[in-house]
Amino acid sequence: MIVLGIETSCDETAVAVVEDGRRIRSNVVASQVQLHRRFGGVVPELASRKHVERLLPVLDESLEQAGLPLTRVEGIAVSHGPGLVGALTVGVAAAKGLALSLPRPLIGINHLEGHIYAAFLSEPEIEFPVLALIVSGAHTDLVAMSAHGSYDVLGRTRDDAAGEAFDKIARAMGLPYPGGPELDELGRQGDPTKVALPLPMPDGSLDFSFSGLKTAALLALRKANHPSDGQWAVDLAASVQHVVAKVLVNKTMAAAERARPRTVILVGGVAANSVLRARMEQACAGKGYRLVIPPPALCTDNAAMVAAAGDYRFGRGLRDDLALSAYSDLPLGRRTERLPA
Fold it and tell me: Residue 198 pLDDT more than 80?
């Protein structure tokens, strides 16, 4: 099946064509980083307006790269939350228009489910049961999967997500937006033991909390004589990543003891972080778990992951009608799978 995916949940305008849930025919992403960089973060209204400007040109480019006319598309998949409601509205409206005019079946995809299926794009033969760590700017979730479409959320963030902590700390250090990659690069030569930072929620819970770490890092910045200069800033960047990676890996291994997965997958924008990738690889190798991490281009927001998730849902006979909401706040694992009448 050839599925067209649309992703506009935040500040990336993306359209992709995926065949049989595995082969990426095209995956075009128009970034808004330069637009939002001067504000130090995403401005929702500006993001929505830019999606309106870019979506149709990105659609045309994606079809051209795929070498297919629009009429060859057999299904339309679109992100419909979580995310920025104005941005999501643009993508869902476009998907409905395509589904109605072609006509083709339509399916709404939870953005977090999309991230999970980025792993299936990079390694199609993933064995169940699966334990997924989804870690991004707004979400940090541990999800057990016994099969496609079966999700058991074992833990999630209670306040700030790991990616948000990275971005806010980086901004306070004077690093440009997005701060996560900048923090990763800066900390490569740092000593992760130089700046004392608390380990967030080190108890037996599988939930996450990064607000305290963010506060501790900001207080350390206030006390520093030269917070933006020299080796101290490098060590702070290394220390922040060390603490975040340690918590994420420790809780993933604790969840794996409970879920007994054959495969652990690490997905989401923060999965591109070099420290986290290395620590997770080491931990999974030590425990004998197969680890799948998509390449960085599939970790960040993209439409190929949405199309892949859509293909698996279409394959189970699932469809949405034109009443599909532009925003669903149902957590992953609680969506009712709607079968056609």
Answer: yes
pTM of the shown model: 0.93
Q: Does 46 fall in a domain?
A: yes
Residue 131 has what pLDDT? 98
Closest CA relative to residue 241, chosen from 159, 313, 182, 321? 182
CATH number of the domain to which 138 belongs: 3.30.420.40
Which pLDDT belongs to residue 55? 98
DSSP-assigned beta bridge partners for residue 265: 132, 292
User: What range does the domain containing 188 cover?
Assistant: 126-296
Q: Locate 295 and state its tokens.
A: 């390449």
Q: Is residue 199 within 8 Å of 242, Cβ to Cβ?
A: no
DSSP alpha helices (H): ranges in the chain?
33-37, 44-66, 85-101, 111-122, 162-172, 179-186, 211-223, 230-259, 274-287, 296-299, 304-315
For the cut 90, the answer to whether the pLDDT of residue 330 exceeds it is no
**Could you tell me if residue 340 is inside a domain?**
no
Span 180-201, average pLDDT:
93
Q: Are residues 102 and 130 both part of a single domain? A: no
- Cis preceding-peptide flag for 200 (omega within 30 of 0): no
Work out the mean pLDDT of the chain and round it to a whole number: 93
- 69 and 150 part of one domain: no
Helix (H, G, I), strand (E, B) or coil at 26: strand
